[in-house]
Amino acid sequence: MLDNFFIAVSAVVPMFILIGIGAMVKQLKLLTEEELNHVNRMVFKVFFCIMMFYNLYMADYASAFRPKLIVFGCLGVLFLFLLGMGAAYAFEKKVPIRRGAIVQAIFRSNFVLYGIPLIGNIFGSEGLAVPTMMIAFIVPMYNVLAVVALETCRGGKLDLWPTCKGILKNPMILGAIAAGLARLIDLHLPAPVLKPLGEVAAATTPVALIILGASFRLGTTAHHRWELIFCTAARLLIAPAILLTLAAFLGFRGVDFVTLVAIFATPCAVAGFAMAQQMGSDAELAGNCVIFTTGLSCFTIFGWILVTKTLGLF
């Protein structure tokens, strides 16, 4: 039991130390708002693209490609989306613009930012091929469903073509496409090229988590306290309880199971706040969902890792 406790600690603590460093950067005012936005944009457009390319280019596809895992992950996200839509319309009667933010909070996790370090801390760098492969499927699904939720909940007209173009321009998807093409034509990159790409890929997650910690802005919760409590419970407790139980029943184990923990038990996606802001939803509720789920996830992720490790699921 003590060994399982230390495994859970080693999986979670490094991530939150990096977020804490980011909070210290903010407290010391080492970056202005404008500088923070520029660094954040650089990490998203450059670092994540290189990380996706490098991890997929170096991956052993024979062992990393998991059709059963991909199907379960995508169906699980779709299930949470439908659950979120039902809950948003059933419980949010007074302020319709909150519905889109509620749906996003329930189905859209911070898988990209938390999945790689969580699995890397448990299985080492050799375990990263599986979650990286899943990113290529889950991220486009998140983007499409987020647009559907936000447009539908505000009564707008759904136009998927701009969404599809936006997905194809996503740096992570571009990196995945580039890696796939490179492997398809059997392009052999020399070591002097691969080494800096690997160094950038290794730096991506630490820098992104530091920027996340430096970006926190707490808004008022007075007008949406119950919605915030519901979204936080749904994201960190209800969703993982349902889907991880089903995953265990279906026989997912090892790195596959922890990848599902990273998809279904991690906090709300930071991108959900930006999309809510841009598409006329309740940006303050969306932002608070990110902040509160991120803060509380240090306890809930630890709990899920400890419980599932004790049960022998990885």
Task: Characterize the structure shown.
It is built from 14 helices and no strands. The protein has helices at 2-27, 33-58, 61-64, 67-91, 98-107, 111-123, 129-153, 160-169, 171-184, 191-214, 225-249, 254-264, 270-278, 283-310. The radius of gyration is 19 Å and the shape is globular. With 314 residues, it is mainly alpha-helical.
Q: How would you sum up this structure in a few lines?
A:
It contains 14 helices and no strands.
State the low-pLDDT regions, or none: none
Succession of helices and strands: HHHHHHHHHHHHHH
**End-to-end CA span:** 14 Å
Reported for the largest beta sheet, the result is:
none
Individual helix count? 14
Name the beta content range. under 5%
Helix content: over 70%
What's the layout of helices and strands?
Blueprint: H1 2-27, H2 33-58, H3 61-64, H4 67-91, H5 98-107, H6 111-123, H7 129-153, H8 160-169, H9 171-184, H10 191-214, H11 225-249, H12 254-264, H13 270-278, H14 283-310
Tags for this model:
0% strand, 14 helices, globular, single chain, 80% helix, 314 residues, mainly alpha
